[in-house]
Amino acid sequence: MKPIIGITMGDPAGIGPEIIVKSLTNASVYDICNPLVFADARVMKAALKVCKSNLRIRPVEQVKDARFEHGTIDVFDLKNVDMAQLEYGKVSAMAGNAAFESVHKVIELALAKEIDATVTAPINKESVNLAGHHFAGHTEIYGHFTKTKKFAMLLADEALRVIHATTHVSLRQAVDLITTERVLDVIRLLHDACLQFGINNPKIGVAGLNPHAGDGGLFGDEDEKQILPAVKQAQAEGYNVEGPLPPDTLFAKAIQGKYDGCVAMYHDQGHIPFKLVGFKWNNETQNMDSVKGVNVTLGLPIIRTSVDHGTAFEIAGKGIASEDAMTIAISYAVKMAQNKKRNQEAGVRN
């Protein structure tokens, strides 16, 4: 199976279009999938110039019109950017609206089963909100338009896989949102995701919220009152899970292979160790040599993966952005789409 992968351009003032062009330069991407970019075709043509690429852009109005031939990027042309007003590295309502419409359209077609999976380039939350679309990020947009109540963000890169009990909220709000029900939900989502990635009987480590996972209540009681009951219930259901564990050792062990997945309680608790592993800063060039890592939204009726970095406005339009994360995000989407298809076929046969 060669799935159709819908790729959103992200914020047109950011590096999204560039990393898409660079990723689709690789013939190996076309060997595993049929990529279709959702963007304004003029934005993608400008990205070709930025990247000094010999590829061509082919605008289409329907999925069935795409040819999926390496050397030509099929673009589902949304025609929603005024190129005279577009400035790289600038926050604007126009760019935010274009990014939002790209995401909305790809969700719509994935729900209609015209495409098999979706991959998103980075958006700028300020621009999206300036355009009147009041969402904290991609995860919340997908949750809203798929009418999904129980979903979560998973970061994945080689041995480290981290799911978040809470994401784009204040730290004060996060503490209140960490309930036994929520922690149990994300343990189940993480277990199912690992199975989709081909990991049998995954071992899951659950991070504590407080220093030393509360240390028996000395540093807060949330670990014992909310997180521990979720872990015990998951164990009773047959999951291979441990916790709550001090996060300062949990992630170090996970990177070395002790755990197949980790549950983080809030945004930065999970993102910091993940980016320490996947982001490689070059102090001489003052740029990132490599930016790896995939963001997967779990619990949705459709597949969504994404790069795990921002719009990088400071380098947008310079042609130096790394496409590593985009290429990996596409490969994850392909793997998940193929496994989903196989599971559906197996279910029909059974």
UniProtKB/TrEMBL annotation:
Record's keyword annotation contains NAD: yes
One Pfam family hit: PdxA
Molecular function terms from GO: 4-hydroxythreonine-4-phosphate dehydrogenase activity
SUPFAM superfamilies named among the record's database cross-references: Isocitrate/Isopropylmalate dehydrogenase-like
Keyword entries, A-Z: Metal-binding, NAD, Oxidoreductase
NCBIfam families assigned: pdxA
Protein name from the UniProt record: 4-hydroxythreonine-4-phosphate dehydrogenase PdxA
Gene designation: pdxA
